[in-house]
Structures are given as structure tokens and as C-alpha cells.
Amino acid sequence: MPRPSPRGGRRRRVAPSLAFAAIIAAADAQAQTAQPAGDPPPASAATPATGEVRIPAMTLLPPVNATALRNARRLTDTPATVDVIPGAEIDRQMARNLADVFRYTPGVSVNRQTSGTDPFRSLGGITIRGVGGNRVLTLVDGFRTIERITDNTRDVVDPWNLQRVEVVRGPGSVLYGSDALGGVVNFITRNPEDLIAPGEIWGGEASTSFASVDNSLQSRLTVAARAEQVSAMFSYQRRDASEPSRNNSRSPDGIWNCTRNLSAGATPCNRFDPLDIAADNYFARIVYDPLPNLRLRFTADVLQRVTDVDQRFDLGPATGGVTNLSYARTQDISRGLFAADAEWRPELGWLDQVRVMVGYQPQEIERTGTRYRRLANGQVQRVADSLTYSEDVLQGEVQLSSSFNLAGTRHALTYGVSASTTATDYRREDVTTNLSTNVTTVARAGGFNFANADTRRLDAFLQDEIALFGGRLTLVPGARLSTTRIAPRPDGDYRASPGAAPRTLDESNVSLGFGAIWRLDETWSLYGNYGEGFKMPTAEQLFTSLPGTTFNLVPNPDLRPEQVRSYEAGIRVQLPNAYASLGVFRAEYTDFIQSLVQVPGTVDYTSRNISEVTMQGVELAGAWRFLPEWRLQGSASWQEGRQRATPGAAETPFDGARPLNLAAGVTWDNPALRTSVTLNGTYAAAVTETSSSQLYQPKAYQVFDLLASWRPLPNVELNGGIFNILDTRYLGLPAGVTYARSEFTTDATKSTNPIELQVAPGRNFRVGLKVTW
């Protein structure tokens, strides 16, 4: 895969400079042929960058999603809670990462916890309704992304070339199989027609933006063309960034205070280690329409992100008389997607549509580091460490749609099969060299060593949308049969614990779902949904093994899949200029897998199905265009959860639940001035219940952002944003991330993971420029 250019010292900005030059050139060329400022495009024209079609000024329609039911449906025709984030909004926000994408989506958060063990500021995963990590299925155009392991990350998606992001809240295993326990997130990429205006044969865009919080500069150049039955696009994007500034951080007091050896060059407790990020994305797509009812697509999507860290927080004296001198670390993330898909509308009467997709997705995360330290005897030692985790996924799917009338009812069947194979590999090596004696030792299979594995999934699914009483009532039953085989493939580095050799896990699961929509009239409707979900154990949970003298990591091939039953109901209203949805949910999770549980009476640690969790909450979303140029939009989420660590144990609050979270905004759009301004506010209530009184409880906060967009020419767009306008100091701990007072009793712990690094950025800004043609 292409790799960002190596950097010596600070990052290089060659690629962004070239993209910026292209923007200026394009703007100059377009300015010579641009329409006068007062002439808007034709009313029927689609905006190439967004795909929007102009509609009457006061009309406000609920969003369309294609993930919840595997077919395009408006929110009001979907018996589930779905969030749709348009790519145009993501670009307007100049989003740098997934945390920015979900900034205004209460109930959905992105975990990030910067510590000494993960100084790369990686995102841990997306959390939906208090459940996150590998329990949320993350897709790119329907293809699975990598799982997270204990000593690595899942941060393999950047918000680039997106047409939209769809979030289905609640279990989605009926239509998507394993891992859709807490929900489904589908990142849907753009097509050439999203960039080419009607009647034109080519189009494109060039954009650049800067964010002050981490000095990031990201630039993108995209071109698209079509000729008769073929259209194609290519996009390149580059992002460079450094460590974030924490202008509101201070060295914490009391139990949370940490001390570092500043005289030895250590980073202060309220600052991040020096960091450089260089990310490249290459995206290409060819669309071929050989027949009016047949479309073929071929996609190549490659992401490469390299993060270099000068780890300085632990410089100076350490335990055992050792002095840490330096530690340079690198994280190299690569994700590729090479896919083909077809959509055929055969018009056979009984068969409406056939969709076929097949793709290969190699994904790898490599962490390397070189540490120098002085031993108690004065000798200097060098330790070169490397950890590589990879998943190579081959995935295919066939989906068919049929519609027919039966006994006065209308049916829309969606059915098909999906299959995938995943090769999982874990490699770790530590090479220690005494530079005084030139003696080198090599240690392999350290850390959370587990056997490599091959996972095979083969599923069949069926869903029926049944319309009764002239369409006033829609029932949506569904079922899925899932079969999974996870077979260990240990290499020469795998160290099996005595009497606990890994063995193959074969598992089958039936997931059921049932939804309903009752349209009271043209305005009001009720909906309800029952869904089941399951999550298969990971290869790490099944096959972790590391025998030792003081403890043993022991595999557990008898782990059961995690399960959930979810109940949801709500009411919706749709008016010509407004829509709203209010829903309540309850989810009952069982057989949660907890890692590294000590077996009583032994020194063995293993993974076990021991915990159960109950989550319930209320969710609200809507928008109202109260004047032709003014719009209100907002959403809210309130959650409460209980957990039981072991059967018979007392219930305690579930730390993944979050109390009231609210995001609301007012937008002013003036087409005549080509100007749009949005004021957004977010509010989070204080956490008052935790599973232990020793845990830190984040306080309430409210933050305001101002976003503006202006088109001085029809094809030139200037974007700007001021975030955290009031410079509010708040601790943005993600759901499920906890700080325990009992863990902050030693200087080593405080120094490694200071709570102050979780303080959110103070006032910061972003500016951007985009040119389309």
C-alpha cells in the first residue's frame, strides 16, 4: 500500500501544498466562467457536492437511510431509531476524525483515552446506547472493519469521501449478523454522479482546511467524469497534524495529581507528548451501466496513517535503578478495500432487484518503538519492540428483493446470504541490546499473546415488510441463521498453557426481529421494534495464552456469544415544515465477556461469560423550518443502566450509561447571499451514579459552537467554525471510560494516565476553502 513519506523532525506539507495550488488554479479558471452572483442555478439542478435537489423553501423532509431495512426508506417508514449524517455536513464541519463526525449526535460517542500505554491518541471505537468497541458493527460500504484487541486500536476509518453516515441504534443481527450487538454504523462513500452536475460530462472539487487545536492541515482533490455508460472518479486526500493543545488543562490537584521528572525532560501532566500524524487516502471508483436496469461498480479505497510519538512522560528515574533516556514510537495503520458490486432490476414480476457484492479488505496496525535506558550499573540498553495485528477479510453477499400482493396485503421481501472469511494474525517481538556489552536477546509472543485464527461466517436472512389496511399498518418480521467457525492457527511463537490447548469453536445462532409502524393519519405515526443481537467471542478472547511464573493467561474455547434482547417504541410526527421522533428503549444483555478474570484458587487468568447489563433510555430528534431561511434542529438522549458482575451478585449502576445529553442548533440559510450560519449547543448532565464510589464522576457542562459557510462565487465555498466559543473547561470522558481513586495511589499510575489529558479542547477554530467545477 502507498505509505506517507517519512518525516524527519516536524511533518512535511508537500502534498497539501500541491492540493492547495490546485484549488487556487481551479478557482481562477472557474471565476472566468462563473455565473453572476445574483443568478442561482436552475431549480431542478442537483448540487454536485451534496446530491441535494432543490425543494420548496418551507419543505423539510426526514432523512432517508438504506441500512436499517437494507432498502432506502425515510425515517418515518423505518421501525427503528436511525441517524443520518450527510457528507455535506461533515465537510462543512471540516471534520478531522470520527469524534468530530458524531459531535452533535447524543447517545452516540467515540471513545478516546490517551495514556502512556496508547500515546497515539487513537480512537477506541464507537459507542451506541452505552455499548461500544467490538459490540458495534462498523462497516464501510457494507464491508466489516477490523476488531479491537487489548493492546491495539480500531481506529481505521477517516471521514473522507463520504456521501453519508448511517447509524442504526440497537441490535442489528437479523440483517447483519454477529457484532451488531449495540448497533450498526455504515460509512457510505460517494459516487461519480455526486460530483457531476446534470448535463455535464465531468466535475470535481478541491478543498483544504486548517484546525487550530492540533495544527492539522487536510486537503483533498477529487475529479469525476462520465461518457455514455461509464463514469469514474478519483480522490486523493492528505492530512498532517501534531499533538493537540490543551489550553484549558492544568496540573490536577489532590488524589488525581501526578508528578513527572520535568528536569529530565518529561512532558508536564497537562500536556501531550510531541506527536506527528501523516495520513493519506486514495479512493477510486468506476461505475458501468451496460443496461438501463443493470449497474456495476468497482471500488478501490486505501487509507494509510502514520503517527510518530516522542514518548517523554516517563523520562528520568524508574523502578529498579533504571533511568529512561528516550522512547520513539510509531503507529502505522493501513486499510484497503477492493470491491465490486452489482445491482440488477430484472423486472421478472416475482423478482424486483438483485444485489451482489464481493470485496477484499486487508487491514493492519503495526506499532514499533525504540527505547534507550540506563541500567543501575551504568550500562545503556536499547529495546526495540514491535507489535503487528492484521485482519484480511474476504466478504461476499447476495441480496434479493421481491414484492407481491397476498390476501389483501402488500409484501416486500428482502432475503439473501452472506459469507466471509477472516485471517487474523498477531505478532509481537522485543529485541533488547546491551550497548555496553553488545549482547542481544530476543523475546517473542509477549503482551496479550493469542493464537492466529481463521474465522468463517455463513449466514442466511429473510425480512418481510407487510402493508395492511391500505398501508396504514406495516409489520416487519425478520430472521437470520448465522453459523460461525473460529479455528486457531498457532505459529511457532504461540505458547500454549499446560492442559489448555486452543481448539476450534463452531457456533450457530438464530436472531429474530419484529417491527411495526401504525400511521394514525398523514401526520402522526407510532412505531415499535423488537430485536435480537449477538456478538461472537474474538480470537483474542478465545485463544489468549501466556504461561508465566507468577500468573498464567489461559485460553477459554468454551466462551458463549454475548446476547441482547431489545424493545423499542415511539411516536413520530411529520409536517410539511417539520418532523420529530420520540422513542423509548430497553435492552437486556446477557453473557457479557469479561477478559482477564482470575480463576479462584489459582494464578490463572482467562475470559469468561459472567456479566449481564440492562440499559434503558429515551431519545428525541427532530427539525423545524419555522421561516423560509431559518431552521431549528436537535436531538437528545437519556440513559440509565444496571449491571450484575456475576450471577447472584448485587446490581450496580452500569458505567456505560450516560444521563441527559442534548445537542441543538439554529441555522440561517440565505440563498441570495449564498450564506449559511449555524449556532450549535451541546449539554451533558453530571454523572451521579457509578458502579463504585471510587470512580470519578464527570460534572455537567455546556458548549457552544458557531459554523458559517459563504459562497463568494457559485463554485467557491468558504467555511469557518469557532468551537467551544465560551472556552468552557470540561472533562469529556467517553461512555464506559472510568478513573478509579484506588488506581491513583502511586506516582507511576498518575504519571502514565493523568486524568487532565482527558480535558476537552478550549476555544479553537477551523477554516476551509472548497472549489467545485
From TrEMBL:
Subcellular location per the Swiss-Prot or TrEMBL entry: Cell outer membrane
Domain of life: Bacteria
Entry keywords, A to Z: Cell outer membrane, Membrane, Receptor, Signal, TonB box, Transmembrane, Transmembrane beta strand, Transport
Listed transmembrane segments: none
UniProt domain TonB-dependent receptor plug: residue ranges: 75-184
GO MF term (any one): siderophore uptake transmembrane transporter activity
Membrane topology recorded in Swiss-Prot or TrEMBL: Multi-pass membrane protein
Region (Disordered): 29-48
TonB-dependent receptor-like beta-barrel domain boundaries: 296-725
RNA-binding is among the record's keywords: no
GO biological process: siderophore transmembrane transport
One Pfam family matching this protein: Plug
Signal peptide: 1-31
InterPro entries, A to Z: Beta-barrel_TonB (IPR000531), Beta-barrel_TonB_sf (IPR036942), Plug_dom (IPR012910), Plug_dom_sf (IPR037066), TonB-dep_rcpt-like (IPR039426), TonB_haem/Hb_rcpt (IPR011276), TonB_Hb/transfer/lactofer_rcpt (IPR010949)
One term under GO cellular component: cell outer membrane
Alphabetized PANTHER family for the sequence: HEMOGLOBIN AND HEMOGLOBIN-HAPTOGLOBIN-BINDING PROTEIN 1-RELATED, TONB-DEPENDENT OUTER MEMBRANE RECEPTOR
Family per record: Belongs to the TonB-dependent receptor family.
Protein's recorded name: TonB-dependent hemoglobin/transferrin/lactoferrin family receptor
